[in-house]
Amino acid sequence: MVLQVSNPNNVKVYTVSGSGYRSIPDWLERKKKRVLKNDPEWSSRIELIQDFEFPEASLRVKTTRDGRFIMATGVYKPQIRVYEYSDMSMKFDRHTYSENVNFVILSDDWTKSVLLQNDRTIEFHTQGGIYYKTRIPKFGRDLVYHYPSCDLLIGASSHEVYRLNLNQGRFLNPFSTDSTAGINVTIINPAHQLFGFGTENGTVELWDPRSRSRIGLLAPQLPSFSASSSDLFQVTAMEYKNDGLSLAIGTSTGHVLLYDLRSSKPWLVKDHQYGYPIKKLFWYDVVIGNEGNSKIISADSKIMKIWDKDNGANFTSIEPNTDINDFCVVPDSGLIFVANEGIQIGAFYIPSLGPAPRWCSFLDNLTEEMEENPQQNIYDNYKFVTRKELENLGMDQLIGSNVLKPYMHGFFVDLQLYEKAKLISNPFAYADYREKMIKEKLEKERESRIRITKKLPKVNKELANRLIKSSEKKRKNEEGKTTTVAAVDEVNNLLKDDRFVELFTNPEYEIDEQYDLLHPTNKNLRKDSDENDEDEQMNESEESGASTFESETDSDEDLITQLNKRKGVKLKKTKDEPIRNIQSTSKLQKNKVPNRKWDNMGEMTMTFKLNNKNNKKDKKDNDYNNQKRNRRSASKNVFRGLNY
């Protein structure tokens, strides 16, 4: 046997009955016995109480004070059914002429009861059947019995609360309220017998049974964010707590208000969030879980919520498949019976709320076994795939067969078949998966390492970053290893220097990065200089910055001369010589000395000779030639000296 279990708010709720599975008649069960044997839904069902159902729907359900019976009303046809716990079966059923609105059990067992019917009649039932029937002037909505005075209080669609004295056997003067529409709820405080009447106008009137007069009027107010002032609501449910001071009020807007009778303002307002009228409230004080805090059970037609009375925190909830009409809690246990619009009367067991009753103590053993051996989900052996995935796996030809179960925008396929098809379509999937896992593991290990964060200034970030990289290269050349930490510290000390603070803090000193885009020639020259002489660039940048490239020059010749001086290469340049020729010569290696010649047409011929240290004569000739080429001609004739 297996119970359906839900886990709202991490609190397990076991559905004992009323899960929505179909009810099969006896004759059909005998006829299709073999078929039902193979039905997992039917074979795994649990019948806590046999015939715990009605042909169409259940309306009200209540337990007797002696804890031995449960009484329920339902349709169709309208009837009463009494069940005995010891036998776990129905004791008897009894039909009535009209549907039941509410009923009260007068005795400790089921033998005496009063039923309020929807045709303005009140029926008194005893052990042998119906005993007496009478009518009231208006359609009744609720009733309650006052044991000290033997008065039966009946709320109806009138401003009066009818009083029927069962000792005298006659109606007494009714209680006249200020309600203009009707009385929805009538309750009696179990501690001091204070009457409470919830009206259709949205007010609660409190009456003293001794003086038979009203002693208080409570006008509940909903929060402004939940309902506007123009919205009218009714009081649809009320319940006193055994302490005699606490009162719970349910409204037609789905709100529950908790009051202390000594205050006119609620200490807590709970919203069901569905907007359906609250049908019943119950104070549950015997809680074994959640530190034993008292709980309140409130139900509308859609959901039953169990929450903390102090802060309104949700403990758990029960949401049957059908609309809720009524519920009752088996005393001192976590078992709840729910009357609903389904055939079966719902039974829900919450171990965190309380233990199982004595007459069904096997529920504890059953839930413990389910904890040890959790039930496998029905979808664990299937894989959901789309049409595109089927085409990629080469399984699109199986569409329409029994292998694929259509569902929404895709299909359910057997998990083993899916794994085989995936392996055939991509045999290297495991290798790719293994490589991916290795990369992820290495990335996690890299993330655990200590990383150095470079805090760059807001102004001239690129300059600060270049200084850090240059410092790293310098230290690497000197010490033979990269010391990023020392380089960052060195540049940070430079940024903190009073002489250079404004360079990295004052926006007016920010270097225009667009200059290189507007002057690409200078940018290439700077890159060439960086490649050939890194140490010299570091020293010169600290002394004069980028003055060579950013200083104003009278002509291109001065710029090239400055570049040659910085490079240590002495070249002769004429006025018409293009700058790209100078750029090409600036990339010469240090161990080679160029020998260039110009012809009459302005073309240049360049030859190279290795610089031999032993050949001092060649070295002197090269130096002499370089000095002579670098000498500026005094004549304006640009063709002079081209054949030299």
UniProtKB/TrEMBL annotation:
Q: Which domain of life is it from?
A: Eukaryota
Q: Which residues form the Nucleolar protein 10-like N-terminal domain?
A: 3-373
Which Pfam families does the protein's record reference?
Answer: Beta-prop_NOL10_N, NOL10_2nd, NUC153
Q: Which GO terms describe its cellular component?
A: 90S preribosome; small-subunit processome
Record-linked SUPFAM superfamilies:
WD40 repeat-like
Compositionally skewed regions (Basic residues) per UniProt: 564-573
Q: Is the keyword Transferase assigned to this protein?
A: no
Q: Which residues form the Nucleolar protein 10-like second domain?
A: 378-426
State what protein this is by name: Uncharacterized protein
Q: Which organism is it from?
A: Rhizophagus clarus
